[in-house]
Amino acid sequence: MILTGPEITAATQDGRLRITPFTTDQVNPNSYNVRLGPTLLTYTAEVLDAHQPNPTTELLIGPDGCILQPGELYLGHTLEEVGSDTFVPLLFGRSSVGRLGLFVEITAPIGDIGFHGQWTLMLTPIRPLRVYAGMRIGQIMFFAATGPISLYRGKYQSAAGPQPSGYWRDLAEVRAVAS
């Protein structure tokens, strides 16, 4: 079952859901709007390697915004810290942002129960697009879980700012399967 807007508000008040900062004007009928944080990362290597850390460069979004370019992957983050030990979060781009040609979080919309932190956003524009820190970029929906819960304890826990891929940390598991 998906949480309604009033239930999202109630869950933030009783502690089943944490959204910091929380404002009621970002509550939708069945989701919560999240805003774009002020920091972006881009990868600097010509070829990315899943088996090692990849170098990045940091961009700060100034008051005049930042122009995203097609063909580039930008790692952004939510301004809000979001998490729950009770509900399963799913993050999607807002339709108004999609209508500007910006893909937000296409390949990894599901969060884990027990994750608490800022969400890293994978931003890919189809044409040049100016974005601004604080703009409403996505919306998170929350689903009730059934069955026993194992809380997230992974590498992105307590994330602050955009996080580059940590896939290389799973290298031992990948090599074990390959051999």
UniProtKB/TrEMBL annotation:
<dbReference type="InterPro" id="IPR033704">
    <property type="entry name" value="dUTPase_trimeric"/>
</dbReference>
<keyword id="KW-0378">Hydrolase</keyword>
<dbReference type="InterPro" id="IPR036157">
    <property type="entry name" value="dUTPase-like_sf"/>
</dbReference>
<dbReference type="Pfam" id="PF22769">
    <property type="entry name" value="DCD"/>
</dbReference>
<keyword id="KW-0546">Nucleotide metabolism</keyword>
<dbReference type="GO" id="GO:0008829">
    <property type="term" value="F:dCTP deaminase activity"/>
</dbReference>
<dbReference type="InterPro" id="IPR011962">
    <property type="entry name" value="dCTP_deaminase"/>
</dbReference>
<protein>
    <submittedName>
        <fullName>dCTP deaminase</fullName>
        <ecNumber>3.5.4.13</ecNumber>
    </submittedName>
</protein>
